[in-house]
């Protein structure tokens, strides 16, 4: 049996064809050809070469199909990577925007806190810092009264060592 015939037989077995019957037919053909003239051998070789060509064509088709599928997968991966980059940029922009809004709110809330009225008398502007804790919650009059009466901060109850007058930079 020639090398090509063995390859064809192996291909047939891999593709689920009944290899035993084909092998028997090939053996008979091979035996018949050995007894006959060389032209019969040529006919058998040409049919074997046709089978080999069919096998090669099937393999080429299979490889072409695999190449197209790999190409499609590459395109899908590239598309996913582009989408991921866009998503990351979008998230980064949203995060930056949220941080900027928080910073602006913090600045405005500091300005608002500075402009709030005294938490004791609710009339005058807050214009003192209670020394040691650093809270700004009372006007100068109320802060001095707190220092001499209870001696404790109304927010954290720490001892007031001194009252420091502050002036806004408006």
From TrEMBL:
<feature type="compositionally biased region" description="Polar residues">
    <location>
        <begin position="36"/>
        <end position="49"/>
    </location>
</feature>
<dbReference type="Pfam" id="PF13920">
    <property type="entry name" value="zf-C3HC4_3"/>
</dbReference>
<keyword id="KW-0863">Zinc-finger</keyword>
<feature type="region of interest" description="Disordered">
    <location>
        <begin position="31"/>
        <end position="53"/>
    </location>
</feature>
<dbReference type="GO" id="GO:0008270">
    <property type="term" value="F:zinc ion binding"/>
</dbReference>
<dbReference type="InterPro" id="IPR001841">
    <property type="entry name" value="Znf_RING"/>
</dbReference>
<keyword id="KW-0862">Zinc</keyword>
<keyword id="KW-0479">Metal-binding</keyword>
<dbReference type="InterPro" id="IPR013083">
    <property type="entry name" value="Znf_RING/FYVE/PHD"/>
</dbReference>
<protein>
    <submittedName>
        <fullName>Putative E3 ubiquitin-protein ligase LUL3</fullName>
    </submittedName>
</protein>
<feature type="domain" description="RING-type">
    <location>
        <begin position="118"/>
        <end position="156"/>
    </location>
</feature>
């Amino acid at each position: 049996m020639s090398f090509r015939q063995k390859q064809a037989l192996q291909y047939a077995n891999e593709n689920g064809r009944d290899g035993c019957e084909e092998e028997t037919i090939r053996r008979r053909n091979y035996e018949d050809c050995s007894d006959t003239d060389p032209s019969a051998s040529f006919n058998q070789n040409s049919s074997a070469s046709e089978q080999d060509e069919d096998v090669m064509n099937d393999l080429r088709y299979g490889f072409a199909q695999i190449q197209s599928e790999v190409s499609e997968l590459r395109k899908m991966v590239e598309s996913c990577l582009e989408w991921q980059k866009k998503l990351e940029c979008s998230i980064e922009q949203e995060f930056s925007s949220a941080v900027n809004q928080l910073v602006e709110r913090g600045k405005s809330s500091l300005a608002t806190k500075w402009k709030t009225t005294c938490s004791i008398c609710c009339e005058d502007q807050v214009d003192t810092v209670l020394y040691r804790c650093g809270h700004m919650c009372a006007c100068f009059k109320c802060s001095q009264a707190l220092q001499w009466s209870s001696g404790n901060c109304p927010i954290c109850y720490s001892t007031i060592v001194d009252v420091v007058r502050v002036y806004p930079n408006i």
